Each structure stands twice: as C-alpha cells, then as structure tokens.
C-alpha cells in the first residue's frame, strides 16, 4: 500500500479515539493533546494525535482501529506494515492512515512498560508505577501525566513546547514540579526550565 504525503494530517479528536479503543487495552494519549486533556480544554491547534500502547496490545489496538492502515515511521522513512506483521523492536511510531479520506488520523507509539509499570522510552532506568503516571478525564479518557509530557517536550525546545510549558507551569502540583526538575537535572542538565521549577 502506498503511503500518504507526510503532511496529510487530519487527526481525530481524542474522544474519537476513545470511542474506538475503549478500556480493554493499555493505552493513553500523549503529546500536546495530553496536556489539553489535563487542562480540561483545548489550548491550541494540534496537527496530530499521539497515543502510546503497550507492545503486547498493539495487535488489539490495530484490530480496534481496523478502518486504518498502519505505516512504520523510522528516521523519516514511512513504510506500510501489514496487519499480520508486528512492528520491529526499533519502531517507535506507527502512523494510522484513513484510506477512504486520504489522511493520517493517529500516531501510535509502542511503549516498553508493563501493565504495572510505566517506563520512559528514552531512558528505561526511569520507571514509575503506571497508576502514578496515567491520568483519566471525567469521561475515562486516559492520558500521560503532565510532568512526563513536559519531560518528552524538553528535548526539542520547539516554540509550541515552550508555550505548553508556560501554560502548564502554574498548574503543576509541587510534587510534579519536583519530579520534572529531578528528571531534567538528570537527563537535560542544561535546560532552561530547571531554574523556573
């Protein structure tokens, strides 16, 4: 199957994803949408919809999203991944294409944790109880805790990530600020955000 253009995004809203995935597998929204779910409102436009899923649940997730065709994305290379083929261990992103509408709908990210433990994909020595890291909206929509989202965003220092940090900082609990500061000191010791936490 031929890939869509890289910029052909018309992502679903997280609520659309929730209707399809439900609560029978381990998944949660990440990225900017996760922060907006935490805020309880949409604070900016989102070009994509990123969600993480345990590797053991990838096949189930794909089955629940059977209307989509999935492509592995590695170093800018986008390759079709038949539903019968599990992604290779090094694959960190699977883009879901809607062939009927000619657009990308979701960015599925395999994660290395377990049903009990969340593991930071960029440094597996950073592991936390899953119950501490995955939050839920009043409607039960799961999303990654804000401090962890900001840790992911700290690596690139994009303009939108700076704005996300500025908006999130006043709402972070003292314990979340402390966790994020500790993680940044360990993984990004020169980061500007450390002084602000």
Automatic annotation (TrEMBL):
InterPro entries per UniProt: Aminoglyc_AdlTrfase
Pfam families: Aminoglyc_resit (PF10706)
Highest rank taxon of the organism: Bacteria
Protein's recorded name: Aminoglycoside-2''-adenylyltransferase
């Amino acid at each position: 199957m031929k890939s869509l253009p890289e910029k052909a995004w018309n992502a679903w809203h997280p609520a659309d994803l929730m209707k399809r995935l439900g609560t029978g597998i381990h998944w949660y929204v990440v990225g900017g949408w996760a922060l907006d779910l935490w805020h309880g409102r949409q604070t900016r436009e989102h070009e994509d919809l990123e969600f993480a899923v345990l590797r053991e649940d990838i096949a189930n997730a794909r089955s629940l999203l059977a209307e989509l065709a999935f492509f592995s994305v590695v170093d800018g290379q986008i390759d079709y991944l038949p539903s019968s083929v599990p992604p290779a261990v090094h694959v960190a992103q699977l883009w879901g294409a809607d062939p009927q509408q000619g657009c990308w709908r979701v960015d599925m990210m395999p994660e290395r944790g377990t049903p009990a433990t969340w593991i930071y994909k960029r440094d597996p020595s950073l592991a936390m109880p899953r119950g501490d890291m995955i939050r839920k909206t009043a409607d039960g929509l799961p999303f990654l805790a804000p401090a962890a989202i900001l840790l992911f965003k700290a690596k690139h220092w994009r303009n939108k990530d700076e704005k996300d940090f500025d908006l999130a900082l006043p709402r972070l609990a003292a314990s979340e600020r402390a966790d994020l500061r500790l993680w940044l000191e360990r993984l990004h010791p020169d980061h500007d955000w450390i002084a602000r936490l």
